[in-house]
Amino acid sequence: MSNFFNTKIEFLKGVGPMRAELLQKELNIYTYGDLIQHYPFRYLDRTQFYKVAELDESMPYVQVRGRIRGKEVLGEGRKQRLSATLVDENGDQLELVWFKGVKWMQKTLKNHTDYIVFGKPTEFNGRFNMAHPELEELAEEKQTTAFLQPVYHTTEKLKAHRIESKVISKMMEHLLKVALPQVQESLSPELIDTYKLMDKRSAYANIHFPETADKYNKAKFRLKFEELFYIQLRLFRQKVVRKADLKGQIFKNTATLTDFYKNHMTFDLTNAQKRVVKEIYGDLTAGKQMNRLLQGDVGSGKTIVAFITMLIAADNGAQSVLMAPTEILADQHYVGLKAFADSLGINLGKLTGSTKAKDRRVLHEQLRSGDMKMIVGTHALLEDVVQFQNLGLCIVDEQHRFGVEQRSKLWRKNPRIIPHVLVMTATPIPRTLAMTLYGDLDVSVIDELPAGRKEIVTTHRFDSHRLRVFQFVRDQINLGRQVYIVYPLIEESEQMENYKDLMDGYESVKRAFPEFKVSMVHGKMKAQDKDYEMQRFVKNETQIMVATTVIEVGVNVPNASVMIIESAERFGLSQLHQLRGRVGRGAEQSYCILMTGYKLSKDSKTRLETMVRTNNGFEIADIDLKLRGPGDLMGTQQSGVLDLLIADLSKDAPILQEARAAAQRVLNQDPQLEQPENMNIRRHIQSLSVNTVNWSRIS
């Protein structure tokens, strides 16, 4: 798009340097392009007028036509207020009240004059009133005024400087007058025709100031489609470039893997695991760098797939890394895989923050010489001192917990040929989010639990049922099982005094179960103390583990069959699902009990009902996305992809599907975007700076 949209915002009529500085700090609005893409988040319906007799307290903002018949200032000093009476055409009265700006309103408001008033109706002493309504004097020629009024996001600081939604709306009016003639079409005529899209100029005009509800809907669809189309186009092109440019080591030998299958593996892979291994092997033999996302619910068997992949690398003279976000999880992977590695005569190491200096020196030497073929660890693997003879495979577990820069630091540890990459997550990602976040990755899904696993029985119980729940716990422990009790907080805080805190919970659990031993783990403990308590629980020296969400990732205790989550309404849906996945790891029937008080929000009820109804992680992830939006799901802020301006992944899956299909079709037919019909698309991409992640942005 033209340089016009890079014009600094301070040069717009009604802005100036002081307002520009505030808009930059508070809303990241620096240029005309940023402002025109600061879309309204809702609209006030100014298309309908109500009579006073039709008002109801449940109504949001409404507008009423009437005549001012009297006004007076009531009260003294700080309690002073202005009261005016508006009478509609039926003679019914509405009181208008102002507590601020009393003197100014008293001067401005004209008696015996017709006005449109707009505000929230409330009832007091059997009479309706509106506090601080918007007023518009009703001139004869404006009798039929009707429109959808945009409401823009603002902040407390902006409001304090009188930059409210109406002021932003005024700025937008000034901008559109000068900006619309400069808007260039950014989609091809073929796409506009195929998807019946509104032209871009009209879309900008009608998203900010809709002429009709139909035009607003068309503008919204057009801008959402374009935003998602350019994101998908960028991801597809990245994938094409990567597959064309990035060579990968070819891993064809599988002798050790065959030995492992025949002589050392004590269980059968599920069909889903076999399918995923086949997909990975296809990548490893293709001569291109593998870049694959492996999704699988808690306990679905991702770790053994990771180990099989590491074996293929070892068979071909390459080293592999398995990086986990916490020491607990790294330890668990190490312990789980060490027995297999030892039986095959493979040197498997572990490097975490608490690895002693003398052990580190040995590890570093073995990695440089190539004697160590596999290593499991945490962020410690990223240190510059960690060097490899031939790093051929990087596996990242719970990958969303690592930043992009951290992950790429690992890939750079082989300067000759980029390692194959397998990223794993037990947080099921909704399809729409996966397409947007990971559209440039190949995706494999393990959608089947290992044989013999029983579905976890989940129930919701109120605090008043605690004695019955405790008796159930006692019965389970007497059968030889172990129990987790998870709390949302470590210590009681004033803001969250209603929620059970860990210390208080620990004491009451010890009082309730004097006959059993209790462990406690939380994030503020030192690593060695945490490990000590964890190991006591793993060895069944303690029967109850009181913990915070530090146990959400990792910790495999097959004997633990009961998970009690206190103040369950405090947790997000995917977090509840992750916690539940800590049990159900053995052959016994497992249980998850969600404890809450009676006071629950609508969203909390939805989360609890979902948990009780289903164990399907993908269904849970879809509902979680609808409830929370994508922002804080999967740590997407760091991804750089989800800087969406108007599209909403929780609601716009159908538009995303269409935009994705369109992007793929365009690139299949014209990979370099050289054909004349794609000139608009090519020009739009070229006009964007290299660093811009979201290609739908103006600048």
Automatic annotation (TrEMBL):
Known role: Plays a critical role in recombination and DNA repair. Helps process Holliday junction intermediates to mature products by catalyzing branch migration. Has replication fork regression activity, unwinds stalled or blocked replication forks to make a HJ that can be resolved. Has a DNA unwinding activity characteristic of a DNA helicase with 3'-5' polarity.
InterPro entries (UniProt xref): ATP-dep_DNA_helicase_RecG, DEAD/DEAH_box_helicase_dom, Helicase_ATP-bd, Helicase_C-like, NA-bd_OB-fold, P-loop_NTPase, RecG/Mfd, RecG_dom3_C
Helicase ATP-binding domain: residues covered: 283-446
Annotated Helicase C-terminal domain residues: 471-631
Catalysed reactions, as listed in the record: ATP + H2O = ADP + phosphate + H(+); Couples ATP hydrolysis with the unwinding of duplex DNA by translocating in the 3'-5' direction
Protein name: ATP-dependent DNA helicase RecG
NCBIfam families registered for this protein in UniProt: PRK10917.1-3, PRK10917.2-2, recG
Pfam family, any one: RecG_dom3_C
EC number in record: 5.6.2.4
Domain of life of the source: Bacteria
GO terms for MF: 3'-5' DNA helicase activity; ATP binding; ATP hydrolysis activity; DNA binding
Family: Belongs to the helicase family. RecG subfamily.
Alphabetic keyword roster: ATP-binding, DNA damage, DNA recombination, DNA repair, DNA-binding, Helicase, Hydrolase, Isomerase, Nucleotide-binding
Keyword Glycoprotein found: no
